[in-house]
Amino acid sequence: MSAAPIHLGGERLMLDPAGVLHWPARHTLVVADLHLEKGSAFAAAGRFLPPYDTRETLSRLALLLRRWKPARIIALGDSFHDRHGASRLPPTELEALHRMLSGIEMLWVLGNHDPEPPEGLPGQAAEEVRDGPLVFRHQARPPASRFSALAGGEVSGHFHPKATMPTRVGGITRPCFVADGRRLVLPAFGAYTGGLDARDPAIAGLFPRGARLFLLGRERLFSMTAAPTGQPALTGTAPG
Amino acid sequence: MGTLPEPFAAWFAGRGWTPRPHQLALLRAGQAGESALLVAPTGGGKTLAGFLPSLVDLARNPRPGLHTLYISPLKALAVDIARNLMAPVEEMGLPIRIETRTGDTPQNRRARQRADPPNLLLTTPESLALMLSQPEATEVFAGLGAVIVDEIHALAGSKRGDQLALALARLGRLAPAARRVGLSATVAWPEPLRAFLSPTGDPEGVRLVQVRGGAPPELSITLPEGRLPWGGHMGLASMPEVYRRIREARVTIVFVNTRAQAELCFQALWRLNDDALAIALHHGSLTVEQRRKVEAAMAAGKLRAVVATASLDLGIDWGDVDQVIQVGAPKGVARLLQRVGRANHRMDEPSRAVLVPANRFEVIECTAALEAVRHEELDGDPPRPGGLDVLAQHVLAMACHAPFHPDDLYEEVRRAAPYAALSRRDFDDVLGFVENGGYALRVYERFRKLFRDAEGLVHVRDQHVARQLRMNLGTIVETPLVKVRLRGGPVLGEVEEWFISTLVAGDCFIFAGQTLRFEALDGVSAVVSRGGEGEPRVPAYAGSRMPLSTWLAARVREIINEPRKWRLLPAAVQDWLKLQRKQSMLPPKDGLLIETFPRGGRWFLVAYCFEGRLAHQTLGMLVTKRMERAGFGPLGYLATDYVLATWSAFEPTEVDRLFEEDILGEELEDWMAESSMLRRTFRNIATIAGLLEKNHPGQEKRPRQMTMNADLIYDVLRKHEPDHILLRATRQEAAGGLTDVARIGLLLARARGRIIHRPLSRVSPLAVPALIEEGREWVAGGAEDALLAEAEALVDEVTGGAELFSGLLADVTEGVRIRPRDVDKPRHRERPRRNRFIRSAPKSLGQA
Q1: Which of B220, B340, B316, B326 is nearest to B265 (CA)?
Q2: May I ask which residue range the UniProt record assigns to the signal sequence (chain B) (predicted)?
Q3: Which of B602, B776, B785, B827 is the mutation pick for testing A, counting most A CBs within 10 A?
Q4: What does each C-alpha distance from B75 to A114, A231, B126 come to in angstroms?
Q5: Does domain B218-374 have CATH number 3.40.50.300?
Q6: What is the pLDDT of residues B525-580, one digit of tens each?
Q7: What is the maximum span of chain A, computed from C-alpha positions, in angstroms?
Q8: In terms of CA atoms, which chain A residue is nearest residue B635?
Q9: Mutation to test the B interface, candidates A53, A88, A150, A169, most B Cβ within 10 Å
Q10: Which of B438, B791, B807 sits opposite A165 (nearest CB)?
């Protein structure tokens, strides 16, 4: 496994091919859109998805905790699929979560799916987290005007970006990071999270001068560039 | 020989008709209360034969209530038949009420039909399933006297057929006295249809009435002038000849195999149409109104020709058609005969039809089909077990109707022929799935849809569950569609969403018989304008191609093997085979020819198996797996009806090791599970079973609605609960439909020790068609990451390796802009090629 370094707001960050971000200077692991208990949310609506998504997501997260040994985790919102998600955690998963987070500072950034702090779980909840030159929020904030630049850097989730890389046998689609020097959007980490094409105006509009995409691979990332915007809208629905 | 009672005899006589023997036979069976299957060629007065016993009975004993239920695979057919029945009923003054009930029937009429059903109700399998899920079904169907299943050959053996069989089993309980009538086109094996129809699942309970065809059809093959195409399935080169024949006949149906082909042929014909003949287009993606308009014009004799897909295969009687032209190989003998039967709907005159093969292999295939027709040999598939996903839907529907005991429902379901061999374990697991998901981890108890009372009866939880079921009823899984709307004008029809997503403003494509320019996507529709520059593309549709019947494939092999039979073939095809004999060799009768050659930076391997596309698909998975292990770096493969072709990064050597019999044993299941086919199968099964929401065509997507990705569910389920009922259902369906393992076993056994490897320096004549074929399967696994790395390196070359993580990117991104058409792909992650569904219109079209 090899992580890729990028610089954002002057900070050196590591992009992990599993779809998470590590900030070595602050011993911080950043993860977006866990959507825990999405399966049970669907089950309540009459669609019995396999009830293993939380277990699957947490076991992948546990692996990353062993890899990076962070002192702090920032979850960039939509950590639960709905506002009652935390209360539906099965006992084994709840216990696993407590065990995983012991000795780690946990910051729950609130998202549109989980606008309230998760009950009964360790950690602090916040609308956004500022640390040094970086700000961590659920959804990227478009610049107020095209002349106002972000000071520092912004790290966010929400959009579940994915991208298709053309290869000699056709396109291959993977979840991806989207970045320019000021802004970084993380792919969704949850087991049942689909994606939105990074060319969609909802994402591309955040990167008017183009971006670099990092597609997730098994052992490494594959990078390609995204054109500056100005392309017509093709598909319009942003995932929640 | 019996006679008709009055007033029927007088009515027949008044039109100069005499009742046909099979009509009388069905009348006798009906009067004796016996079920019957009528197998007759098109145009035999089949439908009237089916209804006659009911009409006679109702004329004799008029009474209110539902007497006869008629089920047709097509809504339009049900409506058409209802109209046709009105005429004799009114002319004879019979006190019989006839109504239809389809998805189009307005809510208030449905409600009235529930309270006061008509005597004859004409409907579809989906609408029947819906009616049976309602609490009133018991009263509505209690007095039912007869069930007529039309075009039963088109339903049995499909998932719609499974659904219908289950509905029939339920009718057997609600109305045990109702006799059944099946109407079928000529088929090779009527036994499975008898079983399908039978109230007990046993064919003996159904009387068979078979009508031998009248005059044998007159069939011929026509080839394009000039060069005979190597590949392609469109047949455009033959359009001048097709046009000439349209001009010479009164009314022609031009049958094609896919909707994309229909669009292209239609355009090509209109370019040639100097006489401005009335030529129309008919396929399943056009709006219903448009199709009805074409059908009405056809019936009124206003058209000279209609270019049609399978949308005209069934049903509606055109009367005056005097010529059928089949463009592209017919793919099956029974299907060909049925299409041919569309011409000259009178049994005593021969039908006239012309086959127009699109490429060289198709010439051989058409020749083989003609031989088969001459020898009166039909092909047909053996029955397959009913789908467990359909059963899941049915179980929930039955609970919505009324509480049931699992033991009773199990017994009832097994009276449906497709489920005769259903194990109790599978039934219980399906029931468990419907109840609460049926997962080993029982965390969904509080969300359960069904509960059991003290007596063991299963009840549905609430009306919400019932509503959700009724929204999702049916076994046809639509891919997401987008309406195509002219700017400031009408909706022209629907194309698949992914196709639209590959267009940028200004791109043009052919649809509904015109060249359209894509402007923008507005909510649920693609706004287009007429005209446009550049090479138009053609939207195509997943799964629209029929596989060649393996039986016909065998006949093709026979012809290739027998130079004496070549005289049946046109000179160009003979030359092609001779060239193959010279440059490589002809595929031997026993044994297996395998060619390898380099091309375009990859190594190709072509195996001439002639076992049909479905068997080749499976073989392709297994062979590429072994190639991966041998270090050849397989990248993909393609299965045609005749050959298997693979391509790899390195030259395959010792190829006989790749085709050893033991490839069937090792890791077959693991490998299959990774395949894109199983993922597609799973998506359909999960949707039918109610796990995923169905796409409702044209339905506006709510903002922020998240569609569930079936692939992700499949991966999680496979990891945590590999024996879950939905995965078992997926494997069962794949084993029956796609992976004819036994067939491959026989092929490999036959080839053992007789594999002939021909390393060539370039592609052989016989391999050319395969290389330009669409429909590639992608090798999953390690190769994908390798390809990404390669593509990334290529981009780096273009950008000079510039890595700009901060500052401006615009200066490097200009040169490597990703054009959407570079990444055309259907939505499935595992099938990333554009070739499969989209083709640019051939140059010849623009020049014609």
Answers
A1: B326
A2: none
A3: B785
A4: 46, 42, 10
A5: yes
A6: 888 888 877 777 777 655 445 666 767 877 888 888 888 889 889 888 898 899 89
A7: 51
A8: A169
A9: A169
A10: B791
Q: Is the ipTM reported for this complex over the cut 0.95? A: no
Give the β-pairing of A20-23 and B98-101.
Answer: unpaired
* Segment A226-237, tens digit of pLDDT: 877 644 333 333
Nearest to B622 by CA among B608, B600, B637: B637
CB contact under 8 A, A52 and B788: no
- The reported pLDDT for the residue numbered B293 is 87
Residues of A in contact with B645 (CB under 8 A): none
Question: Containing H/E element for B180?
Answer: strand B179-184
Evaluate whether A191 touches A225 at the Cβ level (below 8 Å).
no
In a domain? residue A234: no
Name the domain count of chain A.
1
- Tell me: the pLDDT tens digits for A27-57? 999 999 999 999 999 999 889 999 999 999 9
B 704-743 near A (Cβ less than 8 A): 704-709, 712-713, 716-717, 719-721, 724
Say if the Cβ atoms of B791 and A168 lie within 8 Å.
Answer: yes
Q: Does B212 touch chain A (CB under 8 A)?
A: no
Question: Domain limits of chain B?
Answer: 8-210, 218-374, 388-472, 481-538, 584-785, 792-847
Q: How many beta-carbon pairs below 8 A join chains A and B? A: 201
**A149 inside 8 A of chain B by CB:** no
Task: Name which of A104-113, B100-109, B721-730, B807-816 the model is least confident about.
Answer: B807-816
Distance CA B773, CA B230 (A): 10
